Amino acid sequence: MKYTRMPIEKESPEEFGYGNIACNLSESSVTDAVLQDLNISLQDLTLLYCEHRGDRRLREVIAAQYPGIDADDVLVTPGAAAALFMIHTSLLESGDHVIVEHPNYGTNLETPRAIGANVDLVRLTFENRFQPDISEFQRKTTRDTKLISITNPHNPTGTLKTQADLQTLIDLATAHETYLLVDETYRDITEPKHHPLAATLSDRVISVSSVSKAYGLPGIRIGWIICKNAALMETFLAAKEQIFITNSVVDESIALQYLEKKDPYLAAIRAHTAANFAILKDWMPRQSVLEWVEPQAAVVCFPRFKAELNIDTALFYRLLVEEYKTFVGPGHWFEMGDNYMRIGYSWPTTEAFREGLAAIETAAKRAMG
C-alpha cells in the first residue's frame, strides 16, 4: 500500500495547535466532552485483553439503538477511521473497482487509492444541492464493482439522502452482488431520525459510526461496524485481530458508561447545535460573500464564495488564520476549490462561533481584488 498524508490531517487544528486558534469553525464534530463531567468510574477496571468483537454489553447497547440489529451484528473498532480501513482492506485489492461519492471524508478516498483500487467518483455539485445523481451510480456499477461508498448525512455538506435514493442504491448493490458502505457517523445527532440505519435494510449494506462526531468523544477512539452478513463480519473481525487484536478496555468502558446514560448528554448537545445553527441560518442572508446549500443534518455545511466576487483565496485563508485566529476547513481538504469551505457549527462556543462568522466576512472583504 502507498500511504499519502491527507491535507485534512496535515493541516488539522490538532496539528496546527488548538492554542493558536481563537475561533475553531473547522471541526466536524460536537464539542469535546470533559471526562470529569461524565461521572465515569474506572477504578475497578482490569486492564486485560478484552473480547475481540468488543465488550458484549457495549455491543448490546449499540445494537439496542437500531431495530432489527443484535449484538452479533456489531463489531466495535478503534474509531470509525479504523472501521473504514478494515472494510476497504478486506473488500478491495489493487485494480478493483470502487465507486465513491465526492466530496467525501478523506479516508473513504485515500484508503482505496493506497490499495491501488480503481476509484470511480460520483461528484455531488452545488448546483444539484449536493444530492447524488442516482443514474450516475447506475451507469457506473458493473459486475466488477466491489464496493459503493457514500456518507449519510453527508460530510462535508450536511445534506441528507432521501429514503428512495438510499433504497435504489441498496437495490443496485444487491443486483450487482456488491456491497454498499454507508458512513453514518452523524446519524445520532440528526433529529428527527431520518430513516432506518442502512444496515438494517439489507445484508449487502455495511454501516459505520462512532462516538466521535455526534457525542464529542473522539479521544477514546471507539467506533463500530454494523452488518447483518455474518461471513463478512467474520472477515472484518479477522482484519481487526491482525491489526489491533482488541480495543482499549479503558476506551470501551468509557463508551459503555456514556452510552448507557447518553440521553441527557445528547439533549444538551442537540440544544447547543440547534442554537448555533440558528445563528448561522440568521447570518447567511445578512452577509455578502458566501452562498450555501442549507444543511439538513449533521453539524457541518459547505458554502462557497459568490461567483461574482474576485476573492484571493490564498490571502483570505492567511488573513483568517493569522489576523483573526479563525479556522475553517478549506475546500482543498476535500479535493475541491478553495472557494469552498467547510464550516462546523457545533464544536465552538456560541461566542466563538459568532466571532468566527464575523471574521470570515471581514477577511473575505479584505481579500477582494
How confident overall, as mean pLDDT?
96
Which class of secondary structure composition applies to the elements?
alpha/beta
Strand/helix succession: HHEHEHEHEHEHEEEHHHEEEHEEEH
- Identify low-pLDDT runs: none
- Using only C-alpha atoms, the radius of gyration works out to 20 Å
Largest sheet: 7 strands, mixed
In percent, how much strand structure appears in the residues?
A: 5-15%
List the helices and strands and how they pair.
Blueprint: H1 7-10, H2 13-16, E1 23-24, H3 56-63, E2 74-77, H4 79-91, E3 97-102, H5 107-115, E4 118-123, H6 134-140, E5 145-151, H7 163-175, E6 179-183, E7 205-210, E8 223-226, H8 230-243, H9 249-260, H10 262-283, E9 290-291, E10 300-301, E11 304-305, H11 313-322, E12 326-327, E13 329-330, E14 341-344, H12 350-366
Parallel strand pairs: 1-12, 3-4, 3-5, 5-6, 6-7
Antiparallel strand pairs: 2-8, 7-8, 9-11, 10-14, 13-14
Helix pairs in contact: 3-9, 4-5, 4-8, 10-12, 11-12
Q: Your description of this structure?
A:
- With 369 residues, the chain is α/β, with parallel strands linked by helices.
- The chain has helices spanning 7-10, 13-16, 56-63, 79-91, 107-115, 134-140, 163-175, 230-243, 249-260, 262-283, 313-322, 350-366; strands at residues 23-24, 74-77, 97-102, 118-123, 145-151, 179-183, 205-210, 223-226, 290-291, 300-301, 304-305, 326-327, 329-330, 341-344.
- It has a seven-stranded mixed sheet with strand order 2-8-7-6-5-3-4, with helices on both faces.
- α7 (163-175) links the parallel β5 and β6 (179-183).
- It is globular.
